[in-house]
Amino acid sequence: MKLLTHNMLSCHIKGVKNGYPFKIDPVKIEEMDADYDPDFLRHIYPRLEWPALREAAQVMGEPNLPEEVTESMLQNDEEFLRHFHHALLELILEEGALVCPETGRRFPVHKGVPNLLLHEDEV
Amino acid sequence: MKPSVADVRLTSYNKDVYEPSDDSFALVDALQQHDWTSFSPDVCLEVGCGSGYVICSVAKMLSQHGLRAQVLASDISSAALEATQETLVAHGVADVELIQGDLLKPLIPRFQHQVDLLIFNPPYVPTPDDELTRTDIARAWAGGNRGRAIIDKFLPQVKEVLSPRGFMYMVTVTDNRPEDILQLLSNDDIEGKVILERAADEEALRILCCWRRHERDAEGHH
Could you name the Gene Ontology cellular component terms for this entry (chain B) (predicted)? Predict the structure, then answer.
């Protein structure tokens, strides 16, 4: 699971109000080369929750994302864009868990796939 | 030119995973007929990816048209997700992300009106309702009364995630009463039509293509 995907998932247990973002409990992290495409990054940036990505990136070993992102950084700050690319697309949570910030419920991640199925009493 | 659909010989399935069949091929044919030249989806999502044949084909279509999108596929079955992963690897497709989940639920808050291409090949076969509680491969096809049990859980979620410029492609058979499905979606201001009809063994396939009514009409796309 890439952090791009993590950024889009929420805990949907019945009654949970603050199920976003999942905390990441990593057991095995893999790095995978992805095609570097700054246009894709600029395009996707408005859809991201930046603080969630930044926090997840720190847990996953990419501590270099800034707190604030400016338009000029997105346009021509090559160093920033490389870190952004790496955090978003190249760090893979292979084994571990996603933890609901409200309930602490752990959703396992196995072979890179998060299991977000709920138990009967959570629906 | 790169082939724009997945190769069945490279597609994984087993006793727990639905083998690519006439319905999968009809869905991929419908997607191939889509006007990709004026469509650059940011988010593509397949629900119930099974063997991975369809989402792998979508990834290849995107790449053929030089498009880069966030592509996700989900299934309730871990066996299906393993098959999809194998199918993707066999085709050298790296950027499809997999999620084990029940329809669209975990994605709804963050993908509110964001999905540009939503794809669903549901369990559409009419069966007795007790087939619905099975956890084996029956989940891939058992649809309960008129084949509508899972479809009717999915339909209300479509309006949550479909983007203003998005399209939803869904497999149905005539037993599901596709006109009634279109009417239910229409109540959510989602318009659509049967875009492909095909007779297969013992079933009459109807592929639906749907989109949000107001935005598109206002843009004069009809």
Answer: eRF1 methyltransferase complex; nucleus
Please give the residue of chain A at the shortest CA–CA distance from B68. A40
> Can you count the helices (H) and strands (E) in chain B?
6, 7
Q: State how many domains chain B has.
A: 1
ipTM value, please give it: 0.95
| Domain layout of chain A by residue ranges | 3-118
Chain B: residue whose CA lies nearest to A21: B110
Taking the domain A3-118, which CATH number applies? 2.20.25.10
In sequence order, the 6+-apart residues with CB closer than 8 A to the CB of A39 are: none
CATH code of the domain in which B109 resides = 3.40.50.150
Taking alpha carbons only, the member of B210, B97, B169 closest to residue A9 is B97
Q: Quick check: is B182 in a domain?
A: yes
Chain B residues whose C-beta is within 8 A of a chain A C-beta are 42, 68, 70, 72, 76, 78, 81-82, 85, 94-95, 97-102, 105-111, 114
- CB-CB: which of B72, B82, B109 is closest to A10? B109
Range of the domain at B172: 8-218
Within a domain: residue B24? yes
> B23 near B175, Cβ under 8 Å?
no
Are B110 and A1 inside 8 Å of each other by CB? no
Give the CA distances from residue B84 to residues B13, B49, B100, B184, B186, in Å, rounded to whole numbers and listed in that order. 8, 7, 12, 31, 32
Q: Do A116 and B106 touch (CB under 8 A)?
A: yes
Q: Which two tokens stand for residue A47?
A: 């859809």
What is the Cα Rg of chain B in Å?
16
Q: What is the pLDDT along chain A (123 residues), one digit of tens a residue?
A: 999 999 999 999 999 999 999 999 999 999 999 999 999 999 999 999 999 999 999 999 999 999 999 999 999 999 999 999 999 999 999 999 999 999 999 999 999 999 999 999 999
Inspect the interface and report whether the beta carbons of A4 and B72 lie closer than 8 Å: no
